[in-house]
Design goal:
Elements (H helix, E strand, L loop, with lengths): L1 H19 L1 H12 L7 H15 L1 H22 L4 H24 L5 H22 L4
């Protein structure tokens, strides 16, 4: 069962990476792709990838949250509670809640929630790295 915990940990990482792509994909579009001609094959392909990433951002986050829950249950039953893992998991849950708040209550209005959401993502990266580096302890 230890392998299952590790598998779910890496699934969380994959889901989180897909979730994080939302910002860089938009940034690359604004800085590089928007200036290309509309007929450009690269621009058309990039727009399809961007549309997929941006429109599925909340679903990637939901997947990450579900795999986090499965990972937590497996780790608690078959291994031990990890301080770094609990810290990373708590940050992820808070970030999911802030993102849901922004999506369902604030809609398109930019306000402090978006900056908090992005700052939590940066902190979460650091927490996940610390969790991996310490061997999940």
């Amino acid at each position: 069962m230890r392998e299952s915990g590790s598998l779910f940990g890496w699934l969380i990482t994959a889901g989180f990476v897909l979730t994080l792509l939302n910002y860089p994909v938009k940034l690359v579009y604004r800085k590089l792709v928007a200036g290309l001609p509309r007929e450009s094959k690269f621009r058309g392909t990039y727009m399809k990838v961007q549309r997929f990433i941006v429109s599925n951002h909340r679903f990637f986050a939901f997947f990450t949250g579900l795999t986090l829950l499965a990972h937590l249950v497996i780790q608690l039953i078959y291994r031990w509670p990890s301080r770094t893992g609990l810290a990373a998991g708590l940050l992820m849950v808070i970030n999911l809640a802030v993102g849901a708040y922004g999506h369902y209550f604030k809609k398109k209005k930019r306000s402090a929630w978006l900056y908090i959401h992005r700052a939590l993502a940066v902190l979460l990266i650091a927490a996940i790295v610390a969790h991996i580096v310490t061997g999940g302890r």
